[in-house]
Amino acid sequence: MTGFALWQRQILTIVSLEWKKTLFAKRGLWVYALAFLPALLFGINAIRVQNQRDAQMEIQRAAPNAAAVTAAIQTGMSVDDVTRKLVDDKVPFTKFKRRKKFEFVRYSDGTNTWELMFVEGKLTEKRNRDEARLSDSIRAFAGAFQYFFLRLAVFFGCVGIFMNLFRGEMLDQSLHHYLLAPVKREVLMVGKYLAGLVATIAIFCTSAALQFALMLGAHSSREVNEYLAGEGWAHLVSYLGVTALGCVGYGSIFLAAGIIMKNPLIPATGILFWEGMNWFLPTMLKQLSIIYYLQALCPVVAPLSGDIPEPLKLLATTAAPIAAPIAVMGVFAAAGMVLTFASIYVRKLEINYGAD
Amino acid sequence: MATNEEIVFDNVSRFYGEVLGVNRVNLSIPPGITSLVGPNGSGKTTLMNLMTGLVRATRGSISVRGIRPDESEKLFRILGYCTQFDSFPRGYTGFQFVHASLMLQGWDAKVAEAKAWQAIEKVNLVEPAKRKVAAYSKGMRQRIRLAQAIAHQPQVLILDEPLNGLDPLVRSETIALFREQAERGAHVIVSSHVLHEVDMISDQVILLANGYVVAEGAIRGVREEISDRPHQIVIRCDKPSEMASKIFQFDHVVEARIHPDFQGILVKTTNSSQFHKLLNRLVMEGINIETIAPADDGVNSLYEYLIGDEGAQK
Amino acid sequence: MAVYKRTYTTYAGPLTPPRTRFLVLPRYCYERLFQSRFLTGFLVACFFFPLGCAGYIYLVNNLSVFTSMGVPAPEFLKIDSSFFRFLMNFQGAMAYILTALIGPSLIAPDLANNALPTYFSRPFSRTEYVIGKVSVLFILLSIITWVPGVLLFILQVSQAGGDWLSNNWFILRAVVLGQVAWILLLSLLSVALSAWVKWKVVAGALILGVFGIGAGLAGIINSILRTDYGAMIDLSRIMYTIWSDQLNIETSTGLEPFEAWLSFIAVCVICLLMLERKIRPKEIVR
After folding, report:
1. Which residues in chain C have Cβ-Cβ distances shorter than 8 Å to A152?
2. Which DSSP state fits A78?
3. Could you give the CA distance from residue C232 to residue C265 in angstroms, rounded to a whole number?
4. How far is B298 from chain A (nearest CA, A)?
5. Which residues have C-beta within 8 Å of that of residue B211, sequence separation ≥ 6?
């Protein structure tokens, strides 16, 4: 067997040897933790929202005037006035302080959950914290997906898995077993890359699907069915596709970093920084990052993170939206270029375990 | 003249930064068992890694039976390398380890399986082959690596310290395996510190010190080349004192030491051929000679003569 | 009966006192660390900002140029808690980068090379080993954080006089306590992570990841569960809250100072438990 058929068989062999090592390695447990933490949070939220809905039903029974109380509470009222009103109408509430001058009262009127903020004893703001709206959950999902899942979980997951494919084996002193096989180094690289992709896509897409399901789990079946009948399924497919593309893009970068650099952390830090500041870059520079294309494919625009200081939010530039096929091609093209570049180095790769 | 049957190093040097790995190596290794001998850090492993492309030459070129080391796809069809790295891919059983390498050769799974079992059988590891390599003893790990190296019946077998960690019985079985490989026309290149074993198994030796090749060839031939050290010859005879007095008349005899049992003599001579002619005369003069044997044409002596001082400094 | 010639005598010279024996580790670590030109250069760069601050303090306290022109000095040119918080933030960030550079090489190589049995076969305890390794970072980070902070405070007092000192003495406490807490957190975290994973490359990734992922996770906990308590796993926010509280500055990090201290102590305890588990004189055979 020679030529392409041989390479194909060798790639399949490498994938079958590597994907198990990556998926079932004890040292890779943290990747699972990272990937499934948002799912856990959405799960907890679903239970919490369900409990809250039960509590609201209870309030509707026990305090039928609760909705009227909300209408009666006006800004400028004192903490005592408000709490007295709630006690009078038998509406359960919680009160807590934040720092010296802030006080909060939280209660449910049977339909909505309200958070009242008092500054120096006077009501300044009434916030409706209704967790039961699907539109809020969809936005929360979009935020969690773009700020945490893509930028951190998929990013660091790819750092862990793809860097491990070459650099990890160097550290384990076991890479020579591959280099002593009649396999072209480029074929080895492609095989390992595909194995990494199988593992990361399996982990992160499963997590994304689970998060989506659990996010919907907090809502009534009527709402969910309406959403799925509309754009719900398309959203899910987009999120899964973006996750897979993230693995394709980041995977290629970190595989290359593991081959080229003795300490791949230096490029990882640099890329994290570059991807993180993507919002504040001019459009031309934005196009040199993976997150730019991924973000363009996300079906729901996530609000800018609340952690970003206001002056920096002003600097955030919005790039012109790009067509999905261009975004997909962009990621594949970037991955292809990076892998081509890495193949030059993999040909020269030497075994020098002592240096690590 | 290099042929496609030889392993050829043409003015090969390898530096690790400012540290010398090997320098200006010119070798032409024919098939058979060749031992690389030298103290730690002399460049044995570097030479093996250069042959297999695990490290690249800074200067010069290498050809392994006509194939360059960077042509991995061709090279490892004819070459098996049992390295000194005592590490394995995580979680593999002995069988999986050998089988995986055969699959990478492009064999069909069933053929690979049959070949893997054949190789495992050759190193007597059939029973533990289904266990994880992590649970193997050092000797078993050594043997499974050997099985992996020979599984595809390579024409060139390179073995870095292959006898380390093996018990005496397995050692002799392994040495027999090397012979078997050499007898079918393969190159078997072995590095070892155990000089008497090298002596036993090698058709030729390459002596290395500080990254330089200090000698190469058949052991006896190498000994003949060393003229600054007198040859030592042990003679078992009935009149060692008389013999000593007679041989001292000749300039090329520099020392004669009578054996404590008075049944033999150790002679040091700067001209062994003349000394052998002289022995014929002594026999005619009535001295009964039982045996004559060279006392310093083993690897041990070569090592001591050529590397001894440098080796001792390590 | 074999008779052996006695060719050795036991060492009878002075020994390092037990209390300062842990300092043997930093001595050798520094020797190795400062062989790196990059690291030495970075350490020098860490002093640029405090030097600039010293110039700024001098300038702010000598605004005769404005008065000579009959213009009142601009309001923003003043040295107060906010100035020192900015200094603490900047030097704290430098300390973090320095930790990411140095921290991974402290314990991971010892574990990877099975060196712990060698350490502990000497009169050297596990506690001394950990203190020794932590002190490598503690000493180095002190030089770039609270030491310049204290010097700048002294400079400000010398320029502004006793009134400023009586109104702002708490800044000195905040600089020392806040930065020592930060150094302790960074040192413990880096040695614990370095001990946990054994590979310095991975340990470095974890040091970076714990802060980045912690902050991200805090964000989504708050967003998904509609709470503020997610901030308790965001290490940089924890420290920012502590510093702001010490400097009497109001902030909206979503954390109360006691919650921040609680999280800080919890992280330190977890690190100590990790070290307790991993720093043992056993050999790992792979």
Report:
1. 212-213, 216-217
2. B
3. 11
4. 34
5. B20, B21, B22, B23, B42, B43, B46
User: Which class in CATH covers the domain with range A53-128?
Assistant: alpha beta
Q: Name the 3-class secondary structure at C140.
A: helix
Note whether A177 contacts B89, CB cutoff 8 Å.
yes
Identify residue C131 by its one-letter amino acid code: I
Residue type, B168: P
Residues contacting residue B174 through CB under 8 Å, at least 6 positions apart: B123, B143, B146, B162, B163, B166
What chains are in contact with B, requiring at least 3 Cβ pairs below 8 Å?
A
Of A37, A264, A269, the CB nearest to C217: A37
Distance of alpha carbon A99 from its chain centroid, rounded? Answer: 32
Q: How far does Cα C27 stand from its chain's mean position?
A: 18
Instruction: Yes or no: say if A37 and A153 are a contact pair by the CB < 8 Å rule.
Output: yes
Distances (CA, A) of A298 to A145, A153, A245, C135, C201: 9, 16, 11, 47, 33
Neighbouring chains of C at 3+ CB pairs under 8 Å are: A
**Nearest CB to A185: which of B56, B72, B105?**
B72
Helix, strand, or coil here: B163?
coil
Beta bridge partner(s), residue B216: B206
Question: ipTM of the assembly?
Answer: 0.78
Residues C52-95: tens digit of each pLDDT = 999 999 988 887 666 777 666 666 678 889 999 999 999 999 99
Report the distance separating Cα B294 and Cα B300, nearest Å.
13
- Sorted by sequence, the CB contacts under 8 Å of residue A176 that are 6+ apart come out as A351, B54, B83, B85
Residue of C nearest to A96 (CA): C256
User: What are the residues facing B14 on neighbouring strands?
Assistant: B22
Q: What is the rounded distance in angstroms from the CA atom of residue A70 to the CA atom of residue A187?
A: 68
Sign of CA dihedral A21, A25, A27, A30: positive
Tell me whether strands B79-82 and B156-160 are parallel, antiparallel or unpaired.
Answer: parallel
Distance from CA of B89 to the nearest CA of A (A): 6
The domain segmentation of chain C, as residue ranges, is: 20-62+74-278
| Tokens coding B3 | 């042929």
**Cβ contacts of residue B181 below 8 Å, gap of 6+?**
B150, B157, B188
Q: Where, residue-wise, is CATH 3.30.1450 in chain A?
A: 53-128
Tell me if C69 sits within 8 A of C160, measured CB to CB.
no
- Whole-model pTM: value is 0.80
Mean pLDDT by 10 residues, chain C (286 residues): 65 85 89 88 94 92 73 74 93 93 86 83 87 92 95 93 89 95 94 83 81 86 84 91 91 84 95 89 58
Check: CB of residue B234 under 8 Å from CB of residue B264. Answer: yes
Instruction: Assess B305–A contact: CB distance below 8 Å, yes or no.
Output: no
CB–CB contact A172 B87 (8 Å)? yes
Q: Are C220 and A143 in contact (CB under 8 A)?
A: yes
Probe site for chain A from B55, B70, B73, B110 (most A CB atoms < 10 A): B73
